[in-house]
Amino acid sequence: MIPREAFRGISPAIEHLEAARAALMRAVTAQRSERWCLALWGRFIRMRDGYRCVHCESVQKIQAHHIFRRVTFPHGKYELGNGITLCHGCHKSLHAKFNGRPLKSEPLNARGGDDQDEMAYLYGRLAADADDRGLDKERFYFISDRMLEYFVALQGYEPLLQDIQAGGTSRIHFAHAIWWSMPEKFYEMVYGQILSAVFAAKE
């Protein structure tokens, strides 16, 4: 991992970034093809991130990566704050585990592919990169209420969402914080599963 003080600090021309953002918004609003919208989304993400891997700083074979997989939450496929630029090697390592569509009945990351620690790290890296390069997190790293509410449904932490609505924290910081540590809801679920297994064994 490259330390923050070694970041390149490349900032794109804001007018170009605004134009790329506007082009994506127009295409999504006009319901253009998913392929075209994703191409515009990827172009924006790579431009915003300075055309380099935000993890290792490589400029070779860079790709736009969905931090929270779009097969898991399709509504997040065009979210600006759900994308990060990675090189081919870093991108490939994230998809080395299961990369298929999860079943509705299975817990998140049941077969790999939706690792909480990886998501927390990438959202956090993105937030730090925005600060280091002086980019507006609410404009260029926006995550919709719909996606944040989905995170809350999985993880809990309703007070964090209220903090965003009150303007107390950025949306990208929320995405980092909610995946950073398991909430009480998770431990209650695991504890319930353990008790169920114990009672089943006694019968």
UniProtKB/TrEMBL annotation:
The keyword Hydrolase applies. Gene3D superfamilies: 1.10.30.50. GO terms for molecular function: endonuclease activity. It comes from the Bacteria. Keywords: Endonuclease, Hydrolase, Nuclease. This is HNH endonuclease. It comes from Pseudomonas protegens.
